[in-house]
Amino acid sequence: MLANFVPPSSDDMLRFSPEIILSIAGTLLMVLDPFFAKRMPRLFGHISIVAFIAAIFGAVAANSVAGPAFSNLLIVDGFATFFRVLVLGIGILTVLLSYLYLDREKAETSEYHALLLFSVMGQCLMVASNDLIMIFIGLEISSIASYILAGYLRDDKRNNESALKYFLLGSFATAFFLYGVAIVYGLSGSTQLDVIRTKLNNPDIAMGAIGVAAGLMLVGLSFKISGAPFQVWAPDVYQGAPAPVSVFMATGPKAAAFAIFLRIFMTAFQQSANLWEPFIWISALLSMTIGNFGALNQNNLKRLLAYSSIAHAGYMLVAIAARSELGTSAAMFYLAAYALMNIGAFAVIIHIAGKGERHLQVEDLAGLGKKQPVTAALMTVFLLSLIGVPLTGGFFGKFYIFNAALKSNLVWLAVLGLLNSAVAAYYYLRLLVVMYMHEPGEVTQALEPLTPGLGAALVLPALGTFFLGIMPSAVLAFARSSAVFGK
Amino acid sequence: MINLLDLVIAIPAIGFLIALVIPRAMEKFIRIFALGFSLLAFVVSLGLVAGLQSGHAGQQFVTNAVWIQNPEIRYHVGIDGLSLWLIILTTFLTPIAVLLSWNSIHERSKEFFALLLLLEFGLVGVFASWDLFLFYVFWEIVLVPMYFLIGIWGHERRIYATVKFFLYTMTGSVLMLAAIIFLYGQAGTFDYVTILEQLASGRILLTHTQETLLFLAFFLAFAIKVPLFPLHTWLPDAHVEAPTAGSVMLASVMLKMGTYGLVRFCLPMFPTAARENAPWIAILAIIGIVYGALVAMVQPNMKKLVAYSSVSHLGFVVLGIFSFTQMGLDGAVYQMLNHGISTGALFLMVGFLYERRHSLEISSFGGVATAAPWMATLFLITTLASIGLPTLNNFIGEFLVLQGAAQANFSWSVFASLGVIFSACYMLWLYQRVFFGALSDEVKHHMPELSVREWACALPLVVMMVWMGMYSQSFLPSVSETNAAILNGSKMTTPVRAGLAGGGSHAR
Questions:
Q1: What integer pLDDT is reported at residue A486 of this predicted model?
Q2: Domain for residue B370, yes or no?
Q3: Domain limits of chain A?
């Protein structure tokens, strides 16, 4: 067998460079732990940021030699590059958010950062996979690292509950996904997406079987993106996990899961779209409705944002239901905008939460506008973006999605979705009301000034939100050009 | 090329951004700064009046540049006789709103004045946009400052009022967004002129159902904003709770966004649907006229009274628009401006009374005319204007609307004219209870005469009431020209419709 061994070409290695960089950095952190854990605990965060930035360069360089790698297991295209840069950016912002949190909880270790690096590495692998097995491996690397992260504070009950729930339900979902993979392999004899696409075209294959395979994968992926009716875990898990991990789970793994969702359903199952489209339609509507109506009565900020993230998953499912390149690019744009505004909003929550995350009630934001006008103004930007007010990324994201939906004749879904976004305005407005129209409470009175790390994690997403809201062309054009999966 | 109109849009925006970074320690300076910037915008906007060429109804002062390439969204702004005066109304009232708030805003005055400038930016943008997407952007931008103005600086129930206001408007506007996106899907562009041309030439063919649904989507957004009965319930709440400057901007300009939208978009784009639906809309407008007036009559709260009177007055505007007659439409547009001036003045003077007595209840006043005769005089002129006394502004607008409505359907104008009679009842009764009667001690000691600043706020409005009432020729011809083109364009038969979109000066 060894005779057939072809060493990977240098292009192959370049195409794989983000994953290589992140793995090396993650391993390095663990080696460095005994030397620096006591003396300079922040070093680990710094190293992670450097690794993420290097990986972004790697991802961009890989795009210049776009193409398949490692006998078609990987594929580097614009789509993969878009999502690699996105999840790596999310990684950087998560590290920035974590400085303050870990400092406050006296829990700065190398293992936290190493797990984060590995999780992002898994996501990079997922989004660039052209093979169901590779997708599965990436998914598992990403998920297992995030299961551990969710329970990072070992002595904290809520952390433990969150990790256990996430792990149990997540493993079930992965099993569903794997079932789907097995059936597809049985039907097509291949695990490579482009091969599957051509093989499944065969009229001899029963539509029912394809439907079962697609359905099983849909279940697994719906769990990962917290799409209804598989969203039940999200509020509990997001509430229990450490706040920086919550926001990471709500953005990074979700973005990667959406990426493979799009890639699998727009390539392997493209021909059988009529089978799965109604289910996505229903799931989109359910997610939007459950998310928005669930959030109306939440008093815990993390739970509120968890429900809001379910609703946002619903909007993105609308884009998938459109089954077009326009829809794919709209979902890509929305994911970027969503990651920015969600991270920004969570940064403010981490800021006010205090040690042990004691202050997580909506009322704890009271009077922030008076006490820390800049923080409040930045939070306002994120909330307006979440509502979808013009000149923010959230607005254009919604616009592109509903534009794609109407182009694909999903008139009712678009109208219901837009009405949903009016409902959503209510609970985001509630936060604005508390921030600006209530007198400062104990929490805001005693609030410390912003730390540099958190400040950066607020300002960068705010700039990004405005950039996507005022000059969306560049990002959208890139998304548009890379929403075409090789045919 | 930057023309005057771009400047009028840009000045408040620049002012807003600068105001944000002015340090808090200079809070005293911020109001002077806001006044300066809003006056500058006003002066520049007067250049639009001077520069508007009569004789063609198309848009002028056009800037048409690409903002976002794909989907192509253009920064396409321009004015015609319809939008010109609404822009002037905005720039005219903003300095007054700043001046009004000179001493009454103590907390976070920096944010207050910054938001007023942002509001002006949004409003001017709404009236100047010729790209549907751009229009929607400005339309939504307006919501944000008004939300904060009511919510932060309002009265006791401000939070309820402001959230209600936001949600009502938001619900209407998302449906409009859906309609805009749908039109984009058909036309491949957001450019309003191009869409009109395509509709006129039949390149976009809408089925009857489609046209009706699109019309209703736009109509609902505008009707909520107007507000048309029975969608008006947010308005009294918002008005009562808003600070004086907020009430003035809300009543005088923001409500006009709705009526402007009806004239600008609903009529030309969906002529058939507009005409088919006109009967029930006119009936709702008439119900609004009578209902608003009757409810105003029994209000114990001055601001609520004026708010309900707005519901009644705006019923006239909607009636005029849906009469589909030149006179009705002229009257409706003129009435938009009149209502802006006279109701603005009413809210402003109610604000003066409130600052003195810290009450909006009619029953806590009485005999004010003895203590402050000049205030009583100005209030009387405003009252008479609002009633529709000949030689003052509202008379002309209401007369034209009633005339137009009579041409369309005589019974409409019979019922609508009830509103004129009722308005005399509630306004004069209000005047009597507040300004005449026994002068109580509380009123006596808390009712100084108008200050110089208050004169400066009120006098320009009173002058405008007389001017617009005596010499409507300064304003009406350019309005008429545009209206004629809109009416001509919104005939049920299509061929001539391109006339509206025409106009020699739009650069591509």
A1: 58
A2: yes
A3: 272-487
The answer to whether the Cβ–Cβ distance between B108 and A471 falls below 8 Å is no
Q: Is B68 in the A-facing interface, judged by CB distances under 8 Å?
A: yes
Q: Using CA atoms, how far apart are residues B428 and B439, in angstroms rounded to an integer?
A: 18
B471 exposed, middle or buried (CB, 10 Å; 0-12, 13-18, 19+)? exposed
Q: Could you read off the pLDDT of A71-123 as tens digits, one per residue?
A: 888 999 889 999 999 999 999 999 999 998 888 888 888 889 999 999 999 99
Assess B207–A contact: CB distance below 8 Å, yes or no. no
pLDDT at B368 over 90: no
CA angle centred on A106, ends A102 and A111, rounded to 5°: 60
Identity (one letter) of the amino acid at B44? V
Interval A147-206: pLDDT, tens: 999 988 888 888 888 999 999 998 989 999 999 999 999 988 888 888 888 888 888 888
Contact A419 B175 (CB under 8 A): yes
Mean pLDDT over B253-264 rounds to: 91
Interchain pair A473, B69: CB under 8 A: yes
The model's pLDDT over B126-148, given as tens digits with 9 standing for 90+, comes to 999 999 999 999 998 898 888 88
Question: B184 vs A403: CB contact, 8 Å cut-off?
Answer: yes
Domain count within chain B? 1
A414 → chain B, closest CA residue: B178
Residue B461 placed within a domain = yes
B506 at the A interface (CB within 8 A)? Answer: no
How many Cβ pairs within 8 Å bridge chains A and B? 81
- C-alpha torsion angle, residues A199, A204, A207, A211 (rounded to 10): -40
The tokens describing A100, both together, are 């303050």
State the ipTM, two decimals. Answer: 0.83
Residues B459 and B92: their CA atoms lie apart, in Å, by 12
pLDDT band at A345; cut points 50, 70, 90: very high
What range does the domain containing B428 cover? 272-498
* From A391, A406, A437, residue closest to B141, measured CB to CB: A391
- Residue B81: inside a domain, yes or no? no
What does the H/E/C string look like for chain A? CHHHCCCCCHHHHHHCHHHHHHHHHHHHHHHHHHHHCCCCCCHHHHHHHHHHHHHHHHHHHHHHCCEEECCCCEEECHHHHHHHHHHHHHHHHHHHHHHHHHHHHCCCCHHHHHHHHHHHHHHHHHHCECEHHHHHHHHHHHHHHHHHHHCCCCCCHHHHHHHHHHHHHHHHHHHHHHHHHHHHHHHHCCCEHHHHHHHHCCCCCCHHHHHHHHHHHHHHHHHHCCCCCCCCHHHHHHHHCCHHHHHHHHHHHHHHHHHHHHHHHHCCCCCCHHHHHHHHHHHHHHHHHHHHHHHHCCCEHHHHHHHHHHHHHHHHHHHHHCCCHHHHHHHHHHHHHHHHHHHHHHHHHHHHHCHHHCCCEHHHHCCHHHHCHHHHHHHHHHHHHHHCCCCCHHHHHHHHHHHHHHHCCCHHHHHHHHHHHHHHHHHHHHHHHHHHHCCCCHHHHCCCCCCHHHHHHHHHHHHHHHHHHHCCHHHHHHHHHHCCCCC
pTM for the model: 0.88
Residue B278 lies in a domain: yes
Which of B170, B175, B182 is best to mutate for the A interface (most A CBs within 10 A)? B170
B159 at the A interface (CB within 8 A)? yes
pLDDT band at B508, cuts 50/70/90?
very low
Instruction: Compare A89 and B415 and report the one with higher pLDDT.
Output: A89
Residue-level pLDDT at B503: 38
CB contact under 8 A, A391 and B144: no
**How many percent of chain A have pLDDT more than 70?**
99
